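> example.struct
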């Protein structure tokens, strides 16, 4: 029993084990990197959408801070809830904000179901939207 030593513990990785580990990493790495790329793209798109929403909210606050008489005059000058008012950004502005104002028919007194016909003089509908964008904010205001 004295001829051969007994090996009780392995001292390192074999060449085959290292090759298998490298192969597994090489197979798994591209999908993992692709998932990370998609996540960073989604994060930047979300950041742009949040910035757009803050711009819309800020413009809504600016409009609502103006006097009711000025808003009512702008609504009458527009003539239609589909026509942007002077509170909108100039044409050609990147990310242009459009502001729509109209008298609002809250009680539907004329019975036609249209909130902009037969509108009351003491109530205004305000809408701020990004031209060709997804962010929109609507409100109703009174004197």
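> example.seq
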């Amino acid at each position: 029993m004295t001829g051969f030593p007994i090996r009780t513990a392995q001292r390192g990785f074999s060449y085959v084990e290292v090759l298998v580990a490298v192969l597994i990493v090489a197979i798994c790495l591209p999908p993992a990197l692709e998932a990370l790329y998609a996540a960073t793209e989604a994060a930047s798109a979300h950041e742009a959408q949040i910035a757009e929403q803050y711009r819309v909210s800020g413009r809504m606050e600016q409009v609502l801070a103006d006097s009711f008489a000025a808003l009512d005059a702008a609504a009458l000058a527009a003539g239609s809830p589909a026509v942007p008012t002077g509170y909108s950004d100039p044409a050609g502005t990147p990310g242009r904000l459009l502001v729509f104002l109209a008298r609002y028919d809250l009680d539907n007194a004329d019975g036609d179901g249209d909130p902009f016909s037969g509108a009351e003089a003491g109530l205004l509908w305000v809408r701020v939207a990004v031209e060709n964008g997804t962010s929109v904010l609507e409100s109703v205001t009174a004197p």
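> remarks
The longest helix spans residues 15-65.
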